[in-house]
Amino acid sequence: MVVVELDLDSISHIEAPAPTAMALGYFDGVHKGHKAVIETAKAEAAKRGIQSAVMTFYPHPKEVLGKPDQPIDYLTPLQAKVARLKALGVDVVYVVHFTKAFSKLTPQAFIERFVIGLNVKHVVAGFDFTYGVKGEGKMDDIDRYANGRFTHTTVEQVSDEQEKISSTRIRKQLSEGNVSEAASLLGYPYVFSGTVVHGDARGRLIGYPTANIVAKERFIVPKTGVYVVTLTHAGNTYEGMANIGYKPTFVDDLAKPIVEVNIFDFNQEIYGETVEVAFYERIRSEQKFSGIDEIKAQLGRDRATALQFFKQHTANG
Fold first, then answer.
1. Which DSSP string corresponds to 72-139?
2. pLDDT score at 249
3. Which ranges carry the Riboflavin kinase domain (predicted)?
4. 82: CB partners within 8 A, 6+ apart
């Protein structure tokens, strides 16, 4: 897969690429609805004997056009999103740098420069995709802007039994700790990646050593609590349980929650290494304990709950 970064300046100098069928969208999370758009683009590309492409945008438009003191956290920051797109078998990913100047392009200018200018022969997008200044361009209007130079497919709403599958809905589920529901909407367990850093080593002292993980990118962190997780390091995946929280038994004033994972049957030193944590189920809320013995007893129950989860899901395939 080829990744091409574009902005208002570089788009003017790019050599004419090979023809593509291209999926357009922000695609935060690359969830089931997004996959329907991307798989349609792949099918249209195969039908025409051309390459498949995805155009996405970074950073999030809300981050550029919203309040500067309210940064956006992501389901899939850029590197994670690109990895997901690669796994879907896309040939080309265009990452467009979203700026205030870019946001002021007219719909026609966007189509001319970022669709026709990239030799796109077929466009695929969701029914609610908008483009151009203030989102004035709609999929219903795209034939007018195309003027016969490309065709398009509009993918209708993808829903479960409740409502539209959307990044906003998934964010809400994570904020409430409903990681299993989030996984159902995503089509995979929610994954947080980062670097293992030194902690205070209290877990080791009570028999439950943890890997403290700091995100390299701005991932959404699920609601505080204890979770069933897996941790992937150097291509190997291990079962475990994670605590997301402020460690109220020991600390009174942490500014933001810490993600720490107790990896089952694991004794390697992985400080400074990059890991991925996949969240499967929330076990309980974070608690404040009266002492070490109470913590150890509860962690023992948490471990048993996590092991039972993995046993059941292994048995169910």
1. PPBSS-HHHHHHHHHHTT-SEEEEEE--HHHHT--HHHHHHHHTGGGTEEEEEEETT-EESGGG-EEG
2. 47
3. 185-311
4. 3, 93, 95
- The residue among 24, 93, 23, 20 whose CA lies nearest residue 50 is 20
DSSP letter at 177? Answer: T
Between CA 41 and CA 49, with CA 45 as vertex, the angle to 5 degrees is 175
Distance CA 121, CA 119 (A): 6
**Left (φ > 0), alpha (ψ -120 to 50) or beta: where does 79 sit?**
alpha
Which residue ranges make up each domain of the chain? 2-155, 174-315
10-residue block means of pLDDT along the chain (317 residues)?
96 92 98 98 99 97 81 93 98 97 97 97 98 96 97 95 92 98 98 88 71 91 97 96 75 68 93 96 90 90 97 77
Torsion of CA 30, 257, 268, 218, to 10 degrees: 30
CA Rg, the chain, in Å? 22
pLDDT of residue 209: 87
CATH architecture of 174-315: Beta Barrel (2.40)
Output phi, psi for 252, to 5 deg. Answer: -105, -15
Q: Domain 2-155 maps to which CATH number in 3.40.50.720, 3.30.70.920, 3.50.50.60, 3.40.50.620?
A: 3.40.50.620
Q: What is the DSSP letter of 193?
A: E
pLDDT for the residue numbered 250: 47
Inter-residue contact 226 to 299 (CB < 8 Å)? no
Token pair in block for residue 253: 């004033």
pLDDT at residue number 204: 62
